[in-house]
Write a structure and sequence with these properties.
Layout lengths: L4 H7 L3 E10 L8 E9 L5 H13 L3 E9 L19
Antiparallel strand pairs: 1-2, 1-3
Length: 90
């Protein structure tokens, strides 16, 4: 059975990385839009993220305003926490 390449990356130290890209289009410079991108990448250099941003700059007309990056820790069991509140919609 083949092993998922992202799982292999995680075992080799890559972490689930989320990038939030704020950008604006040339015809609407006052309107910021957001794009979320996720992959397994190696901190602190983030080579896959840098490759994606280079592609964006070359191929997409939208101008990047800000990029925020977050990453999860090493491979570990999933965590689950219950909420102590309940909301009802009527």
């Amino acid at each position: 059975m083949p092993v998922d390449p992202d799982f292999k990356r995680a075992l080799n130290g890559a972490r689930l990385t989320t990038a939030e890209v704020l950008y604006h289009l040339p015809d609407h410079p006052g309107l910021l839009q957001t794009f979320l991108w996720q992959t397994y990448d190696a901190a602190p250099d983030y080579p896959r993220l840098m490759q994606f941003l280079d592609f964006w700059r070359r191929e997409i007309e939208a101008v990047i305003h800000t990029v925020r990056v977050a990453h999860a820790g090493l491979v570990k069991p999933a965590e689950w926490r219950g909420a102590d509140v309940e909301y009802r919609l009527q």
